[in-house]
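check these tokens.
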Amino acid sequence: MSAFAQDGDLVQLQGSGYKSHILRLKAGEVLQTHRGVIKHDAVIGQPWGARLQSHTGSPFYLFQPGLADLIRETKRTTQILYPKDIGYILLVLGIGPGKRVLEAGTGSGGLTTAFAYMVGETGRVFSYERKPEVQALARSNLSRLGFEDRVEFKLGDAAEGFSERDVDALFLDLPNPYDYIPQAKASLKGGGYLGILVPTVNQVSRCLQALKYHQFAFVEVCEILLRYFKTDWERLRPTDRMVAHTGFLIFGRSVFKASDELFDGEDDELA
């Protein structure tokens, strides 16, 4: 990657205390913002981290967008997962270059973006969604970022199962994921990872029963809480608001026979 922004690069123009803009540079084009106009030609050739100005004098900083930035800027009609949850999902499911990962419930494509980013050019993401209009938005979001070639978008109901087999990891973001554990099992490779997101403890209970019945082991349930601090070193304290409960995350491994001792939730090292 060049030390300077080039024509065709995906860039982030971050204002001070207001909305950032993620765009792909194209010679001759113009970015219109509430803080003024910025010509792409004035950005091309600038070093990363440079301070730029719109025609009204408003400052913008030039960055390469990170994964969290891409997800936060996702256009949405449905609620997307928070970066705090996505980061842990990626780690636990072992998502990396060359992996094959399947998700059911594309939504606006926030998690799809993270999966596509992590699997790289050698991996593959299979994303199932029932609603064509929802899938169309996700396609548009992934295309804008240049990740569409890494994803196979499929219209389909999870109840009918998935055509892929031996995938490395599978994630269910559906209202009733406990009904689709058999379909997930059929698509996962031996030892593959399953992840689930649900908002209530009632749903967690039903998922745990289904996971045990369908031979998943090393199951864990958690939630991720995130609290920011004000960055004034003379009055350092937590911010007034925090991103607390956004959902329960459930993870398990597909095995041929799950014994009770692999499913009792006890872990001496964590106790």
Notes: Residues 132-145 form the longest helix (14 residues).
